[in-house]
Each structure stands twice: as C-alpha cells, then as structure tokens.
Amino acid sequence: MRPFRGHSRIRGGGLYGCLAALALAAAFLCGAGCGPEAPAGQECRVTWVYDGDTIRLRTGEHVRYIGIDAPEVAHDDRPGDPLGTEAARRNRELVAGKTVRLEWDRERHDVHGRLLAYVWLPDGRMVEEILVEEGLARACAVPPNTAHFDEIVAAQRRAMAARRGLWALPPPVPERFYIGNRRSLRFHRPDCRYGRRTRRENRVRFESREEALRQGYCPCRRCRP
C-alpha cells in the first residue's frame, strides 16, 4: 500500500505543478507582469487609448507616456484643446490592440498612480517621438525622467520647422521675454507667479517663445505662454 500512496503524492504534486505552470502561462498571455517591477523591455498589449498620451494595458494598468504632452480631448463639461481629437486618433492608430514594449525611466509612477513609460512599437519606433514629429504633441519632460529628452526635442524641432500640427496654429500673444526654469524645464510669462518664484540659480531668460520650445522647455499650464 505504501508504494500506492507514494505514487498518489507524486501524481498530486505533478498535477499541482501543471496547474501552476498553466496559471503562469495564462498570466503571461493576459499581459501580467507589465508593472514597474517588470524588467525593462516588457511587452504588453494595449486595450484602450484615452487620448494622445495615455493608454490602458490588458492588465488594467494605465500608462502615461514619458516626455510629451498631447492636447487634451473634451471630457465632462470641459472642451478639448485644438488637435486633441486628432492626437487621440493618431495614438489609437499606432497602438490600439497592439503589443508594445515598455521602457521605464528613473521614476515609474506619476502623482495619479499611472505607470510612466516610453512606448515602443514592434517596428522599433518610439510612439512619443512619432507624435511629436507629426506635431500632435509637445516635448514636455518631467525630470528626472529624461532618458530620451534629446530625441524627443529633436523631433519637435523638425515639426516646428515644417509647421506641422500644433505648430501651424496661431501662437499665443507674445511677450517681451519669458522666464525658464532649468530644474522643471518649464517656461512662463514674465508676470506668471510660478515663473517669478523660480530661484535665481534655476532661472533662464528666453527672448522668444520659439527659443524656449526649441530647447525643450514646456509651456506653463497656468499662464499658457
């Protein structure tokens, strides 16, 4: 009888092992392990596109693109920004239903709890760079996540030179100069209270809005320079 009991334990252990293996395989196929603890280069399936810079993975996690800011789409009672719908549509064309590769930077979550990642297509192109080069998003780095800052800013310069998308829209009323913050990589109108609070060692003066944008500084959301 003892051999029979031992055989039962072996079969039971094998059964549990098989079930565990199947569970792991199912989790992998469903996109599990796409969180910030996953290794760089983790591939995940996109199930929803919210706008030009935010997506949802099959795991249910939300991902905010690093280094760019796309115009807002209309939601609730707030109207959308110019080209917000176009940016969301283009983002949907690029990633919806596809398996993309996520690349982390130094900080992996934003203040809203969303994952922060550079998103790469199967053909090796970075989604952030595509959207910026097509004029459907601005370069907008949030230090310390600046691993691909140079590539994204270069794409913005090309879009500005070609007057594509956002760069074909009428610019805001110009100022005599603008205040930039080296630490936050934001620039402000001279009367903006956030710009005036910039410490002297972090302050940089721009003679034009275009100069600030060409250097990769992002417009302040309050004063909208």
UniProtKB/TrEMBL annotation:
Record domain TNase-like: where: 40-169
Signal peptide from the UniProt entry: 1-32
UniProt KW Acetylation keyword: no
Keywords: Activator, Endonuclease, Hydrolase, Nuclease, Signal
Entry's Gene Ontology molecular function annotations: DNA binding; endonuclease activity; hydrolase activity; methyltransferase activity; zinc ion binding
Pfam families the UniProt entry points to: Ada_Zn_binding, SNase
Stated name of the protein: TNase-like domain-containing protein
